[in-house]
Design a protein that fits this description.
Function: Part of a potassium transport system.
Largest sheet: 6 strands, parallel
Distance between the termini: 41 Å
Pfam families: TrkA_C (PF02080), TrkA_N (PF02254)
Protein name: Potassium channel family protein
Number of helices: 7
GO biological process, one term: potassium ion transport
Shape: globular
Keywords: Ion channel, Ion transport, NAD, Potassium, Potassium transport, Transport
Helix content: 25-40%
Length: 218
C-alpha cells in the first residue's frame, strides 16, 4: 500500500518509519530543508512543497495512495491535505493539538476519517508515573472501552517479547509504547519490551483484570 505523509517532524517521521518497516510504500511531503534532508537520509522519497497544495499532493502520488496523513504541527495544512486526499478516495488522518476547543475538534472530526492527538500519549504516560502505580485506567472511551497504561515490571511475562506480538485476544490491544524518559508513540515492528517500559492499551471494560494478569503476571 502507498501512504502519503505530510510533515516529517517527530510524529510524521515516526509514522513513516513504522509504515516503511512494515513493507509499505511511503512518500513524504515536507517544505523544511533540514527535515527534507533528514527524510532523504532515512531513505524516503520526498516531495518538496506545501502539503496543503493539491499540485504538490499530486506529485506525491495522492491519486494512487491508500491513505494520507496530515501530521504537521499546523492543523490547517493537515486538514487541507486530508480534504484533497478525500477527493481521491484516500483514508484521511489528521493531527490536531489537544488544546483545540471542542467545536473545532468536532468540525475536523466530521470531515476526516480519524483525528490523532500525539500529546495525549505522553500525557497518559505522565499520569501513570505521577500516580506511582504500574497499571492505571486513564478514562472511558465508550461505555465498553477503557484507555489504560501499564508499566512493565521485571518479572512480567511479556519482557523480551516484541510489542507487535503481545496478544491480549479480544480483550484489548496495545496501541503505544514508551521507554523510560521517552514519550509513548507508535512502536516499531521490531521493538522488544523491556522492564520499565510503558504500554498504552485500549481494553474491554470488563476485561481489565485479565489484561492486568497477562501483562503483569500473577
Amino acid at each position: 500500500m502507498r501512504f502519503v505523509i505530510v510533515g516529517y517532524g517527530r510524529v510524521g517521521a515516526r509514522t513513516a518509519r513504522v509504515l516503511n518497516e512494515e513493507g509499505h510504500d511511503v512518500v513524504v511531503i515536507e517544505n523544511n530543508e533540514t527535515k527534507i534532508e533528514r527524510a532523504r537520509e532515512a531513505g524516503f522519497e520526498v516531495v518538496e512543497g506545501d502539503g496543503s497544495n493539491e499540485s504538490v499532493l499530486r506529485r506525491a502520488g495522492i491519486e494512487d495512495a491508500t491513505a494520507v496523513g496530515g501530521l504537521t504541527g499546523d492543523p490547517n495544512v493537515n486538514f487541507a491535505a486530508c480534504m484533497v486526499g478525500a477527493e481521491f478516495g484516500c483514508r484521511t488522518v489528521m493531527r490536531i493539538s489537544e488544546d483545540y476547543r471542542q467545536e473545532i475538534y468536532e468540525q475536523y472530526a466530521d470531515d476526516v476519517d480519524d483525528v490523532v492527538y500525539p500529546e495525549r500519549l505522553g500525557a497518559a504516560g505522565a499520569k501513570t508515573a505521577l500516580l506511582g502505580g504500574n497499571f492505571n485506567a486513564i478514562g472511558d472511551l465508550t461505555e465498553q472501552l477503557r484507555l489504560s497504561t501499564v508499566t512493565i515490571p521485571e518479572d512480567s511475562p511479556v519482557v523480551g517479547e516484541k510489542v507487535a506480538d503481545v496478544d491480549l485476544g479480544e480483550d484489548g490491544i496495545v496501541y503505544a509504547h514508551g521507554r523510560a524518559r521517552e514519550a509513548m508513540t507508535i512502536p516499531l515492528p521490531g521493538t522488544k519490551i523491556e522492564a520499565g517500559d510503558q504500554l498504552a492499551l485500549v481494553t474491554e471494560r470488563d476485561a481489565l483484570d485479565g489484561v492486568r494478569t497477562a501483562l503483569l503476571g500473577g
